[in-house]
Design a protein that fits this description.
alpha/beta; 8 strands; Rossmann fold; 4-stranded parallel β-sheet; Transcription Regulator spoIIAA
Length: about 230
C-alpha cells in the first residue's frame, strides 16, 4: 500500500496529512475511508492535506465524494488544502471545484469551518435530463452522481437492477449507465434492456475506476451528451 496518513485534532477539526496515492487498484482508498470513519467518531469536521498526494484515480475521487456526503449528512464537512496542481485540474475538469473548495493552507481550511457548510444539494445545477447509474460500488455511484449532477443532469443511483427499472419506468430516464460491477449480472441487464427498449444503455469500461480522473470524467460527460443529442 502506497498511502501514509498522519492525523491530529485541533479546534474540533481533524487534520489528516496524506502522503502517496489514493487509488482503488489496491487498499489505499479503503484505508483512507476506514481511517476517516475512525477519526470522525468524535467530530465530523475533517481537513485532508493533499500536499504530498502523488496520484488520484477516478475511484479515489469517488471515495472522496462519498466521504463528503457522509460527513455533511452528519452535519460535518470535508475540506481539502494544499492541493497539488494535478488534483486542482481533476477537480476543475470534473466540475467538482466548488463542491470541495480547496484551500491554500491548513489554517484557511480550519477557519472555513466557522461558516455554515453547504448541504449536498446546494451546489448542484438545475437538471435537464434524467440518468440512472447502476453499479455494485457505492464509491463509484457517489462519484457518478456528483459528476453528472454538476454537469446539469438529474441522477438516480442504485446497486439493484430492479430499482433502476422502477425509476426508469416512473421517471422517464433518458440513459442508464452500467458500471463494471454489473458485468457479472448480464441476465438482469438483458431483462432490463428488453423491458425498457427506448432507454439507452451506456456501459463503463472495466478499468473506469482506475483510470485518470481528469480524463475519464469529462469523457463520460461527453458520451452522455452525444447520446442525448443523437436520434434514437
Amino acid at each position: 500500500m502506497h498511502l501514509v496518513l498522519e492525523s491530529r485534532t485541533t479546534k474540533e477539526v481533524v487534520v489528516v496529512k496524506c502522503r502517496g496515492r489514493i487509488v482503488t487498484s489496491g487498499e489505499e482508498a479503503r484505508f483512507l475511508q476506514s481511517e476517516v470513519a475512525r477519526l470522525t467518531e468524535l467530530t465530523k469536521n475533517m481537513v485532508l492535506d493533499f500536499a504530498e498526494v502523488t496520484y488520484l484515480d477516478s475511484g479515489g475521487l469517488g471515495t472522496l465524494v462519498r466521504m463528503l456526503g457522509v460527513l455533511r449528512a452528519a452535519r460535518g464537512d470535508l475540506k481539502l488544502c494544499q492541493v497539488p496542481p494535478f488534483v486542482v485540474r481533476i477537480l476543475e475538469v470534473t466540475h467538482l471545484s466548488s463542491v470541495f473548495q480547496p484551500y491554500a493552507s491548513e489554517q484557511d481550511a480550519i477557519e472555513a469551518f466557522s461558516t455554515r457548510p453547504p448541504s449536498p444539494h446546494e451546489t448542484f445545477e438545475a437538471s435537464r435530463n434524467r440518468i440512472v447509474c447502476l453499479d455494485s460500488s457505492l464509491d463509484l455511484l457517489a462519484y457518478l452522481r456528483v459528476l453528472l449532477q454538476r454537469s446539469g443532469y438529474d441522477v438516480f443511483t442504485t446497486q439493484y437492477p430492479s430499482d433502476a427499472m422502477t425509476f426508469v419506468m416512473g421517471a422517464t430516464a433518458s440513459i442508464v449507465i452500467c458500471g463494471p460491477g454489473m458485468r457479472t449480472n448480464q441476465s438482469a441487464i438483458e431483462r432490463f434492456r428488453q423491458s425498457t427498449p427506448n432507454v439507452r444503455l451506456l456501459h463503463l469500461p472495466e478499468d473506469f475506476s482506475m483510470s485518470e480522473a481528469d480524463r475519464s470524467g469529462p469523457d463520460l460527460v461527453n458520451q452522455v451528451r452525444s447520446l442525448l443529442a443523437s436520434p434514437k
